[in-house]
Amino acid sequence: MKLYVSVDMEGITGMVDSTFVFPGRHNYARGQQIMTDEANHVIASAFDEGCAEVIVNDSHSKMNNLLIERLHPEAQLLSGDVKPYSMVQGLDASFAGAAFIGYHTMAPTPGVLSHSMVFGAHRMWLGGKAVGELGLNAYVAGRYGVPVLLVAGDDRTAVEAEELIPGVTTAVVKTYVSRTSALCLTPDKSGQLLRDKTKEALASRGRVQPLVPPDKPVLAIEFANYGQAEWAHLMPGTELDNGSPVVTFAAADMLEAYRAMLVMVELASRAEFC
């Protein structure tokens, strides 16, 4: 049995503001260590429960945050940027399930450090359904027939996951107070919770079905300002709403929709707010 583990950073316990998740900030090195520790708890539990292979994808920012020298020795790490499929790089039909660790809620909903890919993306929809990183990644997993078995993050992320994926196991490592504050479990407590929840998720994997994406999905992204939308609209095949900063793309399938999202948000990041 193979397990795919995508690890973001904002949903890790103790991560409450930008000082923990942006390289160069004074808490970032601490954030890397806690992030690596949380990944290790999931990996160790997966091996204990009979997984033969665990692939870990560093899924935060430039995707080079996890400390490979401190990672569980039997895991394999996908690290670095650029990845053609970003947070779900390397995911395919050979996996029995996926775990999303350190995840956060979508923009513009409440949740610790909530956002969707980039801070300029205000809302995203896939086939008319509001989605964030969790939803988009779960639909890619579903495209391969892989169920998302475990989602870890704050309590608002757990609600988002449970509404999206019936039967998913969630691990709440911190409780939302505001976008930049939370009631956090200590790393020891979050580690034990993640081990227990990984065991639970693998034991009950038969109750979770892959999240099947829509056929020929239409991706829509509302940006924070019209300049960002104009940049995103440079991608061929997109349409720009004349009255709002919404760019749409009619994709052939889920994989094309996902890559279109990556291109659009990358282009939009070139725009300035002033």
TrEMBL record:
Highest taxon in the source lineage: Bacteria
GO molecular function: aminopeptidase activity; metal ion binding
Keyword Zinc applies: yes
Binding locations of Zn(2+) 2: D8, H60, H104, E133
Pfam family, one: Peptidase_M55
SUPFAM superfamilies (alphabetical): Dipeptide transport protein
Enzyme active site: H115
Residues at which Zn(2+) 1 binds: D8, E10
EC number: 3.4.11.-
Entry keyword set: Aminopeptidase, Hydrolase, Metal-binding, Protease, Zinc
UniProt-listed InterPro entries: DppA_N, Peptidase_M55, Peptidase_M55_sf
The name this protein goes by in its record: D-aminopeptidase
Species this protein is from: Paenibacillus pasadenensis
